[in-house]
Please model this.
Amino acid sequence: MTEPIKNKAPSRFTMESYQELYRQSIDNNVEFWRQQGQILDWFKPYSEVKDVSFDEDDLHFRWYGDGELNVSYNCIDRHLPEKADKTAIIWEGDDPKKSRHISYGDLHDEVCRFANALKKIGVKKGDRVTLYMPMIPEAAYAMLACTRIGAIHSVVFGGFSADALGDRIINCQSQFVVTADFSRRGGKKIPLKANVDKAFDKPGVKDYLTDVLVVQTDAEAVAMNDHDHWYHELAQEVSDECQPEAMNAEDPLFILYTSGSTGSPKGVVHTTGGYLVYSALTHKEVFGIQKNDVYWCTADIGWVTGHSYVVYGPLANGCTTVMFEGVPSYPDFSRFWQIVDKHRVDIIYTAPTAIRALMKQGDQFLENTSRKSLRVLGSVGEPINVEAWEWYYEQVGDKRCPVIDTWWQTETGGIMISPLAGVTPLKPGKASLPFFGIQPALMDADGQELSGQNEGQLVIKDSWPGQMRTVYGDHKRFYQTYFSAFKGVYTSGDGARRDEDGFYRITGRVDDVINVSGHRMGTAEVESAICEHDHVVEAAVVGYPHDIKGQGIYVYAILNNDDDAGDELEAELKQWVRKEIGPIATPDLIQFTPSLPKTRSGKIMRRILRKIAANEVDSLGDTTTLAEPEVVKQLIENRLNR
Ligand code: WTA
Model:
């Protein structure tokens, strides 16, 4: 076995003090979180800390339940006046000539103005506001403005289609959308506002949506309807002072839709106090944040990583956070490292898919940059393979900076299993050890907890402040999805292996969720989109190993008329899915087939389809329950391998 790599970075912990505090955080959980809650400023101090139940009839998780606070106050006002001139947000445009520094003082005024504009169009405490935004500072202003007045934001990734946007508006009965005229990525201009117009045409949307606030980013005109309001016009009419609303710790903060194994995406609900305590604390300790750090998380705010580690965690800690509008490949594959040099970034936090894509382009794109400012390299969103880990560590960080592989989920609110910068010995490919207060465990299929060195389903015992509170409008589904398989614990849906030192390696999803370029997707969503096409009778979608994306999307489709099969229909179906869901869901491979392997009771045997897609046809496993075994033979013969 190779020796772990030294984790060299400043930290207030040593391995011994981490272990000691970890032990206390478990043995004395309530006392630990009582103290950690002090990372925030509270309008009304909490006396209760933890009130949780995993029982089906009484499922609830409440943290700091009688405390009152405001998220935007914690992210802005409490840093003033000392940090009025400190940069809160460095915005780097898609166009490398464009960047802006927004100080904490400016942020205060911008967020207050935005909050007042929201009030002006009628937004009130408890209302759901859908944000469909590019990566521009106004996206962060809008999020913080919602929190300032107690509105609940639901950020929908700007790459999702009008249809997907419509679904999410309907699901949370959102009366308001905040958007921009255009978004920009890789030198291309994308008409974002036009998608909102299209969403209005979706049946049901008009029952809820009444007003759209539009941020202008471009001189090109866009169509404005009666229900549309220009933000820049309203901003002139409102003041830059807005009192932060005192919110109960358990008031909902945001809804974020994420994919599960079945059905439509779920609205994950996070609440005000516990979420902010957890995102702030994990941000501070996992990365070992220092006073003047420039911290850059490359995630889009449409994902949970953008919520917790672009906006809320860093700003609650008074840190300087970088917000990047563009993509790693534009104008060329040096862009990330140019940004690191330009803004003297200390900590970068990105996804394995980006690392693999850049690694593939070769080291010449690193050579013209220094990257000397870097101290910590973070990774998130999917398992990082050892080769990518080593390239990140050796080539990007010149072996100076620890690679911090952080495992967590939309549902967990913040990082759960990860090395701490400067503390935990590094084992490439392993997310390693739990954060304070977190008790991971491994289960076998029968619900028996596994001990020692072992592999099983990853669950979390007990609750933590950042845990999701419910599925919006469907508490039953919350129970079914996360607490019914194994009693008294949170089931993550991931598998993991624990080594002789208790370090965890996450092995990937055990359900029908796939992870394509770090974007989480339910195979059921892609299936239902494809099946809506006239030529398709039935389809099954699985993930398969993909060099860059981690997983690619492999579709098996049964057509109405076999004669239609061909490149043309394949291209049309790919285009169809892009339109239905968004470009991130575009299938990589589509295999047309006259039938699918099913059990005698008619269930598609996805395990077999996964094996065929992965070209592991020698290990198909038990096929005795197949209704028509010859289907499998045919699928293997016609397997795609492009
Ligand atoms: C996967 C993203 C391995 C995992 C924060 C999880 C990871 C899903 C890692 C959640 C990691 C995330 N190593 N796998 N370090 N981080 N995952 O909700 O399968 O978009 O269940 O949250 O991503 O994706 P989500």
